[in-house]
Amino acid sequence: MKATQNPLLIKENSHRLKAAPFDKIKTEHFLPAFEQTLEEAAQAIDKIKKSKAKPTFENTFLAMDEAEEHLDYISSIFYNLLSAESGPEHKALAQKISPMLAQFSSKIATDPGIFKRIKAVYDAEVEGKPEPVLPADMADKKALQKAERYRIIKTTYTSFIRNGALLSDKDKAKLTAIDMELSKLSPQFSDNVLGATNNFILHLTDPKEVEGIPQSALDAAAFTAKQKGKDKGWVFTLQPSSFIPALTYCKNREVRKTLQKAYSSRAFKGKFDNRALILQIIKLRYQRAKLLGFKTHAEYVLKERMAGSPKAAQDFLNKIYKVAYPAAQKEVAETAAYARKLDGLRKLMPWDFGYYANKLKEERYAYDPEELRPWFKVENVVKGLFKVAKKIYGIDLKRVKDVPLYHKDVETYEVYDNGNYMGLLYVDLFPRETKRGGAWMTTFQGQGMHSDGMRRPHVSIVGSLTPSTDKQPSLLRLDEVRTIFHEFGHALHALLSDCHYKGVSGARVLWDFVELPSQIMENWLMEEEALKLFAKHYETGAPLPKEMLDKVLAARNFHAGIANINQLRYGMLDFAWHNQNPAKITDVGEFETEAIEPYRLMPAVSGTNTSCAFAHIFAGGYSAGYYSYKWAEALEADAWSLFSEKGIFNQEVASSFRKYILARGNSFHPMILFTAFRGRKPDPDALLKRDGLI
User: Residue 301: is it exposed, middle or buried by C-beta count within 10 angstroms (0-12/13-18/19+)?
Assistant: First the structure.
């Protein structure tokens, strides 16, 4: 294939926004594009290494960034499609491409000639010099650019060391082999979770089996049945938009049990078994950490996080545990007692909890979350979200239809600030068999200086929310609306970035800081002043009744103890896998059972397992980092308290959050940025106070 025939190799993108040409890209374009750009990048970097010129930031750091720019562009497209829109050929291709990229990255990171130049610049500009402070005038572009430069040199130098620059040649070879093997295992893990999810359907035909399930969920299940080729009845899948309403409302206990066990046993044994992959992954991560001089993978990871060490992160989680676990136990006991009183249930099981907890909430607060769906039509939610963003940050989002798409469900929006173009947003909200589960924000193009000048970001928010059916439009649960707000918060971190160098722009921050912009955005959803902008009945246009909102707010801390313990269980399970020598771990099921016992609130169920579908830590970027959700939530609770005090649309507070948090990316250490915004260091009890636990 000639380069001119491959849309991935055409550098002169003719689209007005330089948007990715998804309408022209085919799976067969990727391998030749990677082969060519890898060769070109290697040649350019070799030229940098052999240069006789004195190493400088420009001829080394920026030159290397430019050398890899086209390769990064193709990689972003390939891996984003791998998550959002990929078939068997695309997935198989990942097994070839991932090791190629891993070998390339490892070769650079362990090249003594490259590292010599990196170190020379580091010694000249960073070593022994204090970290830049925030300028008194945050409009001082020269001072900000100088700080970015310092940060890039420091983090790049550290990254080279953390990726083997100081190892012997023998150990460098070992590290490269480990990285190549790991690059294959994560996509396999993700494929197995998706395969297990898609492989299950529950086809029901007896009305008694679906008694209690809301009509909207039944209509969706009937529509799914038609799509699956069933003549009658209802089909439930393991997509959250399908099984959550069934678990929450279905009166038939056996149906709930079937769905709960199926979801909780994904990729645990059977055709899509992930157990062997987990054992390989943790073994390789441990070996890698040991090679680099760390006791465990968790110590390696936490060295470059706000927490600083596994002990600090676990101490933080344990502080929450001491308060939340007794509260959670009490909440479970209340739910069990309620189930006995209501239906004579002797033993509350995991498939019972959501059903009876919802009934208890409804009785206690006269509130059923399902009642809210008519006020959350997805189109109104998206438009309303943009109105909220307009009131906070003054930005406008304009729907555009001339941007190439990778799937017909995707919508695109241009973002403007006082007429200035800020970036492009892709919105992809509904489940499909070619998309992995969950929700995320991702970047196709980062903000900052590129080889052809300054570019604005292209980002995407992706989810698997309740789709429309042949009977009604997409009407969302409150937690699904919260998901959109959350991911849009991530998107704002990228879209409102105002850095010179793309290496520090947007969400390229320390991992336990990255959730702050997303989690704080969720708060506006629970405010009457924001909800009245978009929560209107999809048929009548009537606003969400005040009494209904009051019920939602009254119930906001319902089972807050359980919610905290559920998150702690994930975080501590992550540390259990990654903060020890895994040599003695031979049985994935037994190990997990023991690890989560202190956080268990419900009876254990044979044949179920969390780890085998825990894609965050085995196929995402959260290994030894899942704690960061609670860490950032504590920061967010403290940050939001200032909005609550001054006004949720207070322009002074919003401008400060944008200026110090959203715009600055990784230009400064996050504690410096947070303190600048809040006027002090974080309140360690802010989260527990907000959740009503202290």
Answer: buried
